[in-house]
């Protein structure tokens, strides 16, 4: 303390201050007054965003109960969604809202760029829980046009130091794989939108080849995978691929792999046009028929990639190993020959 007082002199004053305030809550120096002032300020300026949300939440809860008094009781005792949604964190693409689904109807995983890489423990845990425990019947991987994560994969220099740059590396790899196609497009917007679609196909493939989904199919579990894309411009969802519902028949996978080799089924623009033409009797707009043909071809291609992925068997590994052993033996023989000739 300074020369004007000692601890002994000052402490009773502080205690007295607190005692007097606690007995007079209306005093301006009361410890309650800052809280009261803050509340008054919020009431007048609506300064706390959470207050606004809590009020909306109360209204929502009350309206649900008034429509159906058992609504929350039912949700408490059961969760049985038919769908798992893997989508982008973008605030404009909320699963329940754009699908018109109620709470309890869709299990949701969202992250930046709607990715489903096998090293993402969050996404894979969510996938495992929804497939093994909730027994969802459909998995929907949804991208959206104009996605910022996808645009960053095209624009952000790879040396940029930030976590987002690390996070989007799988999308960047997708970009690299389709470089020629993307480079032929006229501008960044067109490239972004196409890469958004390609990213959906890639991430759908990751879902299909995840150990969780593969073993579910092996067990005979009914599980259908779709890849779709959402347009911010009109709020509509378009199917890009699916349903992929393979039983995980290993023999079939291997046969497909051997039959098709390492090349994908190729469909050039002429084939697509012909297929669109053949769909004419089905009706619908030209655009909808093009979309249907594209989804069909995408599904064939993703199925083919899955077959290649899971068709890689012990046989291939063994062949590889045999050739390695043979090479090692040959090297050993050469060394032995050299040693013998050196000895002479
Ligand atoms: Zn996005």
UniProtKB/TrEMBL annotation:
Range of residues in the leader sequence: none
What's the EC number here? 4.2.1.1
| Keyword Lipid metabolism assigned | no
* Cofactors: Zn(2+)
Q: Which CDD domains match?
A: beta_CA_cladeA (cd00883)
Determine the domain of life of the protein's source.
Eukaryota
Q: What does this protein do?
A: Reversible hydration of carbon dioxide.
* Family note: Belongs to the beta-class carbonic anhydrase family.
What protein does this entry describe? Carbonic anhydrase
> What is this organism's lineage?
Eukaryota, Viridiplantae, Chlorophyta, core chlorophytes, Chlorophyceae
